[in-house]
């Protein structure tokens, strides 16, 4: 179960359902505070973190002690010096670059930690269950405003990430049966699959 950081997760109490999966993937600084537990659960078996901001991993690693750790560094100018922490499995820069070139080659935009991690894990798992990827603020929909349920942190369309291109790839995976969204695949996403 890959749990997005989308504010749409707060619309329903799915914490127990999420925690019932064998593996639960969290991203970056995914808050697991008691107030969010009914909505997002508390279990984490895989934690994926990017280097942005640089101290994100260091600040949050104590919360994700007993889990597999994935670390991604975008293959972008100025990131050459960044290395994965010694206790994390590195998703190679070349993998991120190939994924970025596949979805939308554009200088300055990098893939979200979520998309990189899903692509990486799809090499290992036949199907990945997801929650929070569809909704008015999730990558699966073009109306991306709030990216994180615990704050007003925003990802505007095509600002930092190639959101529409990522949504197309996510929808293709879902249409091929590789992604099983807990909330189902909305008709608008089905129409967007090319």
Report the order of strands and helices.
EHEHEHEEHHEHEH
Counting DSSP E segments of at least 2 residues, the number of strands comes to 7
Low-pLDDT stretches: 137-146
CATH architecture: Alpha-Beta Complex
The average pLDDT score comes to: 79
Q: Span between N and C termini?
A: 25 Å
What's the quick description here?
27% of the residues lie in helices and 13% in strands.
Please supply descriptive tags for the structure shown above:
3-stranded parallel β-sheet; single chain; alpha/beta; 194 residues; 7 strands
Describe the protein's architecture and organization.
This protein starts with a strand and ends with a helix. The strands form two sheets. The protein has a four-stranded parallel β-sheet. It has a three-stranded parallel β-sheet with strand order 1-6-7. The protein has one domain (2-192): Glycosyl transferase family 29 (sialyltransferase cstii, chain A), CATH 3.90.1480. The protein is globular, with a radius of gyration of 15 Å. Strand 6 (128-131), helix 6 and strand 7 (179-181) form a beta-alpha-beta unit. With 194 residues, it is α/β, with parallel strands linked by helices. It is 27% helix and 13% strand. Residues 137-146 have low confidence and may be disordered. The protein is built from seven helices and seven strands.
